[in-house]
Amino acid sequence: MSCHLTSNFKQIMPEHSFDGFDRKILDALQTDARLSNVELAERIGLSPSPCLRRVKLLEERGVIEGYQARLDRDAIGLGLTVFVDVKVERHSESSAETFKAAVLSLPEVISAHLVSGAADFLLQVVVPDLKAYERFLTQVLLKIPGISDIRSNFAIQTLKQQGALPLGHLR
Amino acid sequence: MSCHLTSNFKQIMPEHSFDGFDRKILDALQTDARLSNVELAERIGLSPSPCLRRVKLLEERGVIEGYQARLDRDAIGLGLTVFVDVKVERHSESSAETFKAAVLSLPEVISAHLVSGAADFLLQVVVPDLKAYERFLTQVLLKIPGISDIRSNFAIQTLKQQGALPLGHLR
DNA sequence: CGTTAAGTGGCATGACATGCCAAAAGAATC
DNA sequence: GATTCTTTTGGCATGTCATGCCACTTAACG
């Protein structure tokens, strides 16, 4: 049981230590992850050596999970974003688990959360068009067992997309 | 009116041309945006020169919008993610516009969409904890004029977060 | 076939990442 | 408050990489 201490450590003790340099690094890399180390160092007011050391540490600590290119969905032919509310059947214990496993394997689902409120799960699904969504819904989603209800909310306009996380609360 | 042609061009003619190399580049940079050009080139089976040229082209075309570090929300003390359904008042024409402008300026709102369905807008809000959300809700969101209803759905568990966009439909 | 256009590969140079060590800054102890 | 210990920084050296240029290959078209 004591082994759970380490796995819960992150929740118990969220920020090990973040000084102003770390916060600036995170802020800069959220905006442009391809900054060279020397430019990043200049921007945060530190020389390249310690700057790089800090970045590596943040990566090792898991604070930085990875780096990803942000693509224009329309440009690559993924014009339709749908937010799907999913309810699973209350009875079967394993409904939620099988649903989670299924969802994780679907590339069209780019985010998935267990949520409070009317629905159980909230999925963000990305497909080329309505026809593709129809196919996804009828041939993929609806075939997952244990689903009691699905509600599709189509994104008509995107105001903001995966904006940078606010870092103002750190100091 | 003809000037609208260019602004609509992307929707009319989504993918200008994507061969296998481009798709592999986008795929690789979605997974690891900090890949060096030589490693990227090796991975996609091309020499560094044309590989870099393709990446720059994809950036200029706007296919690649940017690069960003993915941070661990818990690690930086942002333990609470809330999906907020917002309805604006039907009467005032400008309700939606003022709401959009307000939302764009809020760093806690990391994504915002105009959606079909029961709500008008779907926001993703990130805050340290419940107390911070209470403050955000009462002192920020509820003070935006023209809002008729707000429903907060708390993320209890995150199965997948901003996963890579599926590129399988390109050829 | 010859011509042209587009894309590729290799090379050279300048910039950069990265590991090491001495110096500086800060914390703790007496 | 001086000393010691710890931590972090800055500079340097080396090997790797980005980047622009040019010759070569390939494919399409007349």
From TrEMBL, chains A, B:
Any GO BP annotation: response to amino acid
A GO CC term attached to the entry: cytosol
UniProt xrefs under PROSITE patterns: HTH_ASNC_1, HTH_ASNC_2
Cross-referenced InterPro entries: ArsR-like_HTH, AsnC-type_HTH_dom, Dimeric_a/b-barrel, Tscrpt_reg_AsnC-like, Tscrpt_reg_AsnC/Lrp_C, Tscrpt_reg_HTH_AsnC-type_CS, WH-like_DNA-bd_sf, WH_DNA-bd_sf
CDD domains, A to Z: HTH_ARSR
Keywords: DNA-binding, Transcription, Transcription regulation
GO MF annotation: an example: sequence-specific DNA binding
Gene3D superfamilies to which the protein is assigned, alphabetical: 3.30.70.920, Winged helix-like DNA-binding domain superfamily/Winged helix DNA-binding domain (1.10.10.10)
Domain HTH asnC-type: 18-79
Keyword DNA-binding: yes
PANTHER family in alphabetical order: LEUCINE-RESPONSIVE REGULATORY PROTEIN, TRANSCRIPTIONAL REGULATOR AZLB
Protein name (record): AsnC family transcriptional regulator
Organism of provenance: Plasticicumulans acidivorans
